[in-house]
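From the thread on structure requests for the teaching lab: each student submitted one protein with a one-line request. Submission from student K.M.:

"Model Gliding motility-associated C-terminal domain-containing protein from Spirosoma aureum, tokens only."
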Amino acid sequence: MRLVYTIGLIALSMGAILWPTISQATHVRAGEITTRRLPGASLTYEITLTTYYDEVTGKTAADDANSYTFCFGDGTQAEVKRSGRRYINGRTSSVNTYVTTHTYPGPGAYTIGVQIANRNKGTLNLPPAGSSDQITFYVSTTILINAALEVNSTPVMLNPPLDSARVGQKFCHNPAAFDADGDSLAYRLSKPQEGIPNSCRSRFIPAYLDPASNFSSVREDGGTPPTFTIDARTGDLCWDSPGQAGQFNFAFIIEEWRNGVLIGEITRDMQIIVIDQPNKRPLIVGAEICVEAGTLIQQAIRATDPDGQRVIITAFGGPFNVNSDGQPFPAGQLVPPEYAKLINGGVSQAQPATATFSWQTNCNQAREEPYDITLKVNDVPGRGAVSLASFATLRIRLYAPSVKNLTARPTATAAGRAIQLNWTAYSCGRIASIGGASDTTKLIIYRKEGCTPIVSQSCTTGLPASYGYQEIARIPYTATSYIDTSSLKRGVSYSYRIVASNPGIGNNGGLSVVSTEACLELPLLAPVMTQVTVDSTDTQRGRITVRWTRPLGLNPGDLGAPYQYRLQRATGLAGADFVNIATINTNLQAGVADTVFVDRGSSVSALNTTANAYRYRVEFYYTGTNGQLTRLDVTDPASSIRLAVTPAQRQVALSWQANTPWSNDNQTHDVYRSRSGPNGPFNKIAEVRVQGAQTYVFTDTGNDTFVADGNTSRQLSADSSYCYRVMTRGQYADPKLATLGILINYSQIICATPSDTTKPCSPNLGLDSLNCASLSSESLCGQTSFTNKLHWTLTSGPTCDPNVVGYKLYYGRYQQDKPAELASIPAPTTSFDHTNLTTVAGCYYVTAVSKSGVESLPSNTVCNDACPAFVLPNVFTPNGDGKNDLFQPLKCPRFVEGVALVVYNRYGSKVYEGTSSTLAWDGKSSDGADLPSGLYYYQVTVRYAMLDREAPAQVLKGWVQILREGVSMK
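Reply posted by the TA:
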């Protein structure tokens, strides 16, 4: 998967490139750019361009290739001189390096690019044929600078990108990429690029031809289609198979990943020569091994040749610390010493040939990612023939060794019981410098209850969560012991294991193989809680009986007498506020009742068993050699049973829980009920077999399933209160404590009244509504306040609750409204006057309410609507005599909410427009001037207070005459 950086790549500079003065002869065959961040706080990188030149036809240009311009991806560029030139392949090619440093301004993604004029001539898949020397060479590398990545270097490619292939035979190449940080690498195909003149930009060469599609017809095995691929995991680039002799260039990208994040990618542009001759490629076999750091690896590498020719075995990889030109990197740049070597490598041997990969590994070389050694074999054909090669991979997983000789033994500290772990000093600790800070190997200590063997897997590092261990400490690797004091329980077996965590940049370092198990069972020298039962439920005078055992495994005389129990109490199921409530001295004599106490609280601290559960523990003391009482141990706390009730429809749901060192699971618990109140009598009504978790439930429906003490079955009433108590049975899971038998405890008493959700029947609602047809023109004249009279009757039925105590009336002004509660009316009233209304329009329904507060379904809905009326005159006399001065409705308009008036003169011009709550026009124009006598046309839009919110307005059109000049209308 290719990642697109969301922060965006910094744009390459558009400034002019400073081209070196060289001849334009052909010389560039292949190359790539690598980077290495230098130590320190600044963002300074060492940047290396590695190029491969044709030293036969392009020697003159190679001689002159003394400098090139680097574009750094932050808008800057610099000319960089050649720092090295070494000949390879019998001086037919050379490896050239250009090294510089550059400091970046801040975090971001930067693409570094270099272009060179020109490629060597004759590359068939960069047409036109024979003109590849007219195409520039361009490679780039993208780096991500991020503080979270710490120091980072790109991978280096240790196998030169120059090889030979044969027509009709599968060709493979591996770049032998190695990442010193241990980051994960992924490979994908790309295309060769060319630089755009006078800029830092590039593009894929438009005329590039895919080798398989254009220069092949069949695979080596005769099948189709031919393929050109790269293995995303191993980097094996294979062409199956070339169909034409000649020179070819192609490119691929190496992605660098850390913790699932793409942090960089390198483009390598490489070249191969395909020849047409009968020679067959030699064969070499890889391997995969997994060893502990510190092991001397002596791995035999074997190669053969189908033609019987001599072969040369070589190898490339980080452990050699050698570059692609055969020169060593600075000490420790790729891996810490010692370095690997290939015995009998690089020499001509009769086949079958053998070389030995030899590497004395050490702890500083352990890491999560494997080391991939690229194995290569070349045949040695006769004079005039071209050597062919094959590749294989030797994959080495080098893991950090485990912590050795882990043991565990019981001990005691001031905090109480403890387990001391010891082990041999860790042999593979190391110190790493990361981002300018030092980090060291840590030992991670894990613990779980119970001892379970783990099948050893030498190459499996760390401790998978599936084994059930929890980390309890992380300590320096120099430690050889640790004391565990966290929540240890007597009689429980504890398993311990240790994993070393080694520091390192990226995926270097990592986790070691897990240690062997140290298993220990703490001896039972402390008392054991056996009972916390509620004897009396009261807010002030509650009473709880507490019992425990004498210290198991401790006999009189084992420790100094006298001994002492200190009983402590805390409030709540998980309470931790323990205070001493009793001190009991003892000599552990037979027949003495020294392990029981009845807690009645005190005047300072009342025991409220109604509201609270309580938790108890016992500290055990012995007399030390100095005559002082010394605490030996403390019991695991145990709480009282806490019962809760939830009333429901004619039933009561019970649940109870406890926090005890014994288990109440998979036992039968007894439920008791009293119909006479908290003072009883109580009858057992059920035996509940509980499963699973420590919260248990039972629902009382009134039945009594245990009739030995009398049958009290009958339906629960919402008018009565019922009281409950639960008796639990429990047992310790530890076999040594299971002999204590079944442990019985009682909860507090709690009472509840069942609810009653039976609904009353819905009432039948009526409304005294207006009869619009019977109203005269003067009905309701001048009336501004109205009353709706409602009345209802209660219906009945066999499934309805007849105990009705009241009604709820609901009202909505408009038919579209959801009615809201208007009034609550107590029974037996069955009528209601809705007064002070501005309109009679509205809808109603009523519900009945039972004694239990349950509301019935709504009654039928009744609605009332208004009876509108609005009549206009055809003449008025606005002469100020107080008579007929206004254009307004005749007699009694009814239920009018608003009026809009528009007036036109006889020529059709609008002379007045206005709105009001009712119509009262004074004969003036819109600007306040008196309009002359004459005939005028009007349009009146009337909105009424109707039931329908969306009811359309009434539009009245007509004429009216204005009379002035002393005219009076009586």
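TA comment: Residues 59-64 form the longest helix (6 residues). Residues 1-25 have pLDDT under 50 and may be disordered.
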